[in-house]
Amino acid sequence: MSEFNTDLPSIRKVQSYTKDKNAVAIKLLTNDILEGTILWQDPNCLCLQDQNNQQILIGRHAIAFIRPK
Amino acid sequence: MSEFNTDLPSIRKVQSYTKDKNAVAIKLLTNDILEGTILWQDPNCLCLQDQNNQQILIGRHAIAFIRPK
Amino acid sequence: MSEFNTDLPSIRKVQSYTKDKNAVAIKLLTNDILEGTILWQDPNCLCLQDQNNQQILIGRHAIAFIRPK
Amino acid sequence: MSEFNTDLPSIRKVQSYTKDKNAVAIKLLTNDILEGTILWQDPNCLCLQDQNNQQILIGRHAIAFIRPK
Amino acid sequence: MSEFNTDLPSIRKVQSYTKDKNAVAIKLLTNDILEGTILWQDPNCLCLQDQNNQQILIGRHAIAFIRPK
Amino acid sequence: MSEFNTDLPSIRKVQSYTKDKNAVAIKLLTNDILEGTILWQDPNCLCLQDQNNQQILIGRHAIAFIRPK
């Protein structure tokens, strides 16, 4: 992550997914697709709660893309 | 992304795709090819609107190349 | 790892896994899944103790995600 | 890209390919091989014109190697 | 490698493998597993001596994990 | 590449391969193995001359390891 600046649209978009508890799908560089709601984000990671209510700590560098589920 | 400087030709090229709503294909390091129009870019991500009008938040580090569709 | 700041939720989450000796599963970009308890973390690596009590030094850049086992 | 310094031999080599319109093959981390002539380079990307005259914007981080075609 | 600081436990762990000539297995992002003893480390690389006494210069960024053999 | 400092053993090792025109094998993250002699190195790339005397510009970030051939 080169910049964790909350003015950036990419950070704000994840913030809105988090606030609105939108269901998202996160595609990783491993080709895993993780589904759930984003609990929080920081400069290094996103924390996703999946359908089993498990919290998954995802490295930003490993994320290919995020889309609404 | 080492530099997000809007004087750079690579940033300007994505800006022109965005302004002109050109249809593009984005090849990712996962070998996914995402097609659509670029809504915006920032130092960390591009936001692509696909043919289902879904907004896909793509990490720059995960992009191999972008070409016109 | 862009930031090793112990105020960050992602660092604190790994600290709590470590302190509580939670069993975790760590998915790597190689698609390996390593299971065990986290002994410590630093800006570059995590040290995991597996079920054979072997200590595995994992590069942060190679971690896709961490979840409870 | 750690350094975009035009004194570096790697930057100069790409500049000479560009100036002389040499046909090159670019192998990506996705295992794609893109062939064409390099139009320009900047700290983040190379722009390649392929045999269909399409301009392909390639992320430097995604390039494994470049060789003459 | 974000930090090459010999106070870090991850650097010290590799130093101890080196000093004690422990046999280690190094898993790379290519899924290669290289076995041998670590001769030295620096901010960019580790140098491993394999069972044929060949010295292999390994990029830190390519290492997924290191474990005792 | 975090540091291009010619005091580092990893830089000096590549310098000695270059000076002595040692035949080396370079394993890439793509799983390609490129063989030849190293002509030069800079902070971003190595230039390898293969058995067809072709010069291959290799991104350091794409190199998993280098060993004598």
From TrEMBL, chains A, B, C, D, E, F:
It comes from the Bacteria. Gene3D superfamilies: 2.30.30.100. Pfam families: Hfq_1. Residues 8-68 form the Hfq-related domain. InterPro entries: Hfq_1, LSM_dom_sf. This is Hfq-related domain-containing protein.
